[in-house]
Write a structure and sequence with these properties.
The structure holds 2 protein chains of 2 kinds. Chain A is an alpha/beta fold. In chain A, 43% of the residues lie in helices and 18% in strands. Classes of the chains: A alpha/beta, B mainly alpha.
Chain lengths: 407, 286
C-alpha cells in the first residue's frame, strides 16, 4: 500500500515537472534570465525580473519580435558560480533560449562569461560590474549594457579629486567587487590627484557578505581618521551598514564619504529616511536623471505596474530586452551568430540615454550617474539633488586599458 | 585607550546577541540531542514576526513579548510532526531534515514578506546614542550587553531550581528512566523544542532593530552560533555564554588588527578547541 502511494507520487511529480515543458513547445522568442532571486540580494533579482517583464509585455502588445511572441525563462543563480553555470546550461540546452540576460554577481560572471564560447549563445550582462566581463574575459558572445565598475569608480574618482580629502580608505565587501572597486579607485584618483594617499591593507575594511554587525569595521575606519572613505558595500550589507554607522556617528564626521552603489532603489526603499542626506552616492541608473520622453514613459509605466520607482537593475534588464529586440530586427533573424554580429556597435535609445555597444570590447558606452542624497516630500525615498551625469567618454576606459583581446 | 574600549563594547554587544541565538541551539541539543540546522531560520522568523507586530501596533515591547511565542508554536508543530520521527535515527537524518526545514522556512518568508529588506527602529528609550569616551555609542547595544547575562541567569535558575527544569534535565539525562517513572517524555520534548525555538525567535526580535530584517538573515548567523555552541560545549549554558563572549571579542579585535586574515579567526578558534578539548570548554565528557 505504501509502495503504491510512493509510485503514484513519483509519477504525479514527474507529470507536474514535464507537463509545462510539453505545453510550451510553441513557437515563441525565448529569452533566458539569470539573477539572484533568493538570499540577501534577492531584491535585485526581483526588480530585474520586473523590468524584464515590463519590457516583454510592451513588446508583445506591439506584436512581439519579428512576429513571434516573447517568452521569458527566469532562473536563480543564488549568487553562486556553480549554480549560475548549472542554470545557464539548463536555459540554453533545455529551454532553448536565444539569448541570456542577467547576472548580478561579479563572482558568478567571472565563471560564466568564459562558458559562453562553449555554449555559443549571446549573454547580455545587465548588472555584474567587474571589469573582467568586457576586459580580461571578453569574448564575442558577451555584452554589457550596464555601467561597469570602471565607469562608476572613475566618476567617484573625479568627485574625490574635487574634494579636499588627501587620505582615503575603503569599506567594501570581501570579494572581487570590493577589491576591484578599491583598486580602480586608487588607480584613477592617483592620476587625477597625485598627492593623495591611500591606506594600506591592514587599515582598510573588507567585510564578508554574511556580516550583519558592522560595528568593528565602523570603529576601525573611524579610529583610523582618513579624510575620505570609499564605500563599495551593496544590497543588504549597505542597508545594515548605513543603519549601524549612523548610530555611531559615522556620517557626522567632517570627511568625504562616497558610496558607489548608494542610490540603488533597493537600498533607498529599505532605509527611507534613515539614509542620511547630503551624501555622494552612485548608481547605474537614476529614474529622475533623464528628461527624455522615453524615460518618463518607462518610469510611469513601471511605477503604475509595480508601485515603485525603477531601480537600476530593473532598467538594466529592460534595456537588455530592447537591445536584443533591436539586434534581432536588424539582423532579421534569431540566429545566434547573426545576432552577436549585430549587437556589436549597436546603438540604442534606452531610458538612461543613448547607449552604444562598443565594438572592441562589447561594453556599452553609458553615462555614469552620481548625486547627493536629499529628502523630498514628493517621494517616499531619498532622491538625488544635485545629480551629476558623467558622459560616457569621460568615464569609460579606452580599449588599450581594458585588457580585452577579442578574438 | 578609548579605541580599545570601543572594540570591547563592539565585541560584547555582538557576543551577547550570539549568546541569545546560541542559547536555544544548545538547549535543544543538550536536552533532545538534536542539532537543529533550521535554528537560524527560526531566528529569522522571530525577526519577521516581530516586524509584523511592530508594523501593526508600533510597539516594540508588544512584539518582543508575542513574536517569540508565535514562533515557538511553529517550532512545537515542527517538532511534533517532523522531528519526532528522526530522534531514534542517525544524526545525518536530523541534519538533512532540519536543513530541509531551513529551506522551506526561507522560501516561505520570501513568499509572504517579499525579498526586500526592512529596517525598524528600537523603541524610544532604547534608541539614540550616549557618548562613551568621546564617541557616540548606540544605547541599543548597551541594552544587548545587559540582556544577555540577565536572560542567561534566568534560564540557568529555571533549570537549576524549578521543578519543571529538573524534570527536563532528568529526561535529558536518561530518557528511558524518566519515562519509566511516569514523565511524559514526548510532551516534554515538544515543550523543550518549543522553548529552544522561543529563544531563537527572541534573539531575532532583539536583533531586528539592530540590523535590518531580510531574507537569509538566518544563514548569516547560524554558522557562528554553531561555533559558539561547540566551543562552549554542547548543552552547556555557561559554555554558550563564554563561547559567545570569546567569539565576539575575537572577531572584534580580529577585524581591527588582523586585516585580511580576520575571516579565518572563528574557524581557527573552532579547530583549536576541537583539537585540544573536543568536548568544548564546559562540555561534559563524551
Amino acid at each position: 500500500m505504501k509502495r503504491m502511494w510512493l509510485v503514484c507520487m513519483v509519477i504525479g511529480f514527474l507529470g507536474v515537472v514535464l507537463c509545462p515543458h510539453w505545453a510550451m513547445a510553441k513557437d515563441t522568442a525565448k529569452l533566458g534570465f539569470v539573477y539572484i532571486m533568493s538570499g540577501p540580494f534577492a531584491t535585485y533579482g526581483q526588480f530585474a525580473k520586473q523590468g524584464a517583464e515590463l519590457a516583454m509585455e510592451e513588446i508583445n502588445q506591439k506584436g512581439g519580435i519579428l512576429g513571434k511572441k516573447v517568452e521569458g525563462f527566469f532562473e536563480d543563480s543564488q549568487g553562486k558560480p556553480d549554480v549560475g553555470v548549472r542554470v545557464i546550461r539548463k536555459l540554453v540546452m533545455q529551454d532553448d533560449v536565444g539569448v541570456l540576460i542577467g547576472l548580478d554577481s561579479s563572482g558568478v560572471a567571472q565563471t560564466v562569461v568564459p562558458l559562453m564560447e562553449e555554449l555559443q549563445t549571446p549573454l547580455i550582462v545587465t548588472h555584474a560590474a567587474t571589469p573582467a566581463v568586457t576586459g580580461k574575459l571578453c569574448n564575442k558572445y558577451t555584452f554589457r549594457v550596464s555601467v561597469s565598475l570602471n565607469q562608476n569608480v572613475k566618476a567617484a574618482a573625479i568627485i574625490a579629486s574635487e574634494s579636499k580629502a588627501k587620505t582615503w580608505t575603503t569599506i567594501g565587501p570581501d570579494y572581487a567587487f570590493g577589491y576591484e572597486s578599491w583598486e580602480y579607485f586608487q588607480k584613477y584618483l592617483s592620476k587625477l590627484k597625485p598627492d593623495v594617499k591611500f591606506f594600506g591593507k591592514e587599515q582598510v575594511a573588507f567585510a564578508p557578505t554574511k556580516t550583519t554587525d558592522f560595528a568593528p569595521y565602523i570603529t576601525k575606519v573611524m579610529e583610523s581618521n582618513p579624510e575620505g572613505v570609499l564605500i563599495s558595500l551593496w544590497g543588504g550589507n549597505l542597508i545594515d551598514f548605513v543603519k549601524q554607522a549612523s548610530e555611531m556617528g559615522f556620517f557626522k564626521k567632517d570627511w568625504q564619504v562616497l558610496m558607489t552603489l548608494g542610490a540603488a532603489t533597493e537600498v533607498l526603499y529599505a532605509l527611507k529616511d534613515k539614509m542620511p542626506e547630503n551624501l555622494w552616492v552612485g548608481t547605474r541608473y537614476w529614474f529622475l536623471a533623464n528628461q527624455s520622453p522615453l524615460n518618463k514613459s518607462f518610469v510611469e509605466a513601471y511605477h503604475k505596474k509595480y508601485g515603485e520607482y525603477p531601480s537600476y537593475n530593473a532598467h538594466g534588464a529592460y534595456a537588455a530586452v530592447y537591445a536584443y529586440k533591436a539586434a534581432v530586427e536588424k539582423a532579421k533573424s534569431f540566429d545566434k551568430d547573426k545576432v552577436i554580429q549585430v549587437l556589436e556597435g549597436l546603438e540604442l535609445e534606452a531610458p538612461i540615454g543613448k547607449l552604444k555597444i562598443r565594438k572592441e570590447d562589447h561594453q556599452a558606452l553609458s553615462p555614469a550617474i552620481w548625486g547627493k542624497t536629499k529628502a523630498d516630500p514628493q517621494y517616499p525615498i531619498r532622491i538625488l539633488d544635485p545629480v551629476r551625469i558623467f558622459p560616457a567618454e569621460q568615464v569609460t576606459p579606452p580599449i588599450e586599458e581594458t585588457e580585452c583581446k577579442m578574438k | 585607550m578609548e579605541t580599545i574600549a570601543l572594540y570591547i563594547l563592539n565585541g560584547l554587544s555582538w557576543g551577547m546577541l550570539l549568546f541569545l541565538i546560541s542559547l536555544g541551539l544548545t538547549t535543544v541539543f543538550g536536552v533532545l540531542g538534536v542539532l537543529n540546522f533550521a535554528h537560524g531560520s527560526l531566528f529569522m522568523l522571530g525577526a519577521y514576526f516581530s516586524l509584523q507586530i511592530m508594523r501593526m501596533s508600533h510597539n516594540f515591547w508588544l512584539a518582543l513579548a508575542f513574536a517569540p511565542i508565535f514562533v515557538a508554536v511553529v517550532g512545537a508543530v515542527i517538532e511534533k510532526f517532523i522531528l519526532k520521527r528522526v530522534y531514534v535515527r542517525n544524526v545525518s537524518y536530523q541534519l538533512l531534515i532540519t536543513f530541509g526545514i531551513l529551506l522551506m522556512l526561507d522560501d516561505a518568508v520570501r513568499l509572504i514578506w517579499g525579498p526586500a529588506y526592512h529596517v525598524i527602529d528600537p523603541p524610544q528609550i532604547l534608541s539614540g546614542s550616549i557618548t562613551v569616551f568621546g564617541r557616540a555609542y548606540p544605547v541599543y547595544r548597551f541594552f544587548l550587553i545587559l540582556v544577555g547575562p540577565v536572560l542567561g541567569i534566568f534560564i540557568w535558575a529555571f533549570f537549576s531550581f524549578t521543578r519543571l527544569g529538573k524534570v527536563i534535565r532528568a529526561a535529558a539525562f536518561d530518557r528511558e528512566m524518566a519515562a519509566g517513572i511516569g514523565i511524559d517524555v514526548n510532551k516534554l520534548f515538544t515543550l523543550v523544542f518549543g522553548f529552544g525555538t522561543y529563544l531563537a525567535a527572541l534573539g531575532g526580535a532583539l536583533a531586528a532593530p539592530h540590523q535590518s530584517v531580510g531574507p537569509a538573515m538566518g544563514e548569516r548567523v547560524i554558522i557562528e552560533s554553531f561555533i559558539v555552541v561547540v566551543i562552549g560545549g554542547l548543552g552547556s549554558y555557561p559554555g554558550a555564554f563564554v563561547g559567545a563572549l570569546v567569539l565576539g571579542i575575537v572577531e572584534s579585535f580580529g577585524t581591527a588588527f588582523a586585516g585580511p586574515a580576520q575571516m579565518a579567526l572563528p574557524y581557527m578558534l573552532l579547530a583549536f578547541v576541537l583539537l585540544v578539548r573536543p568536548r568544548g570548554l564546559f562540555g561534559k565528557e563524551v
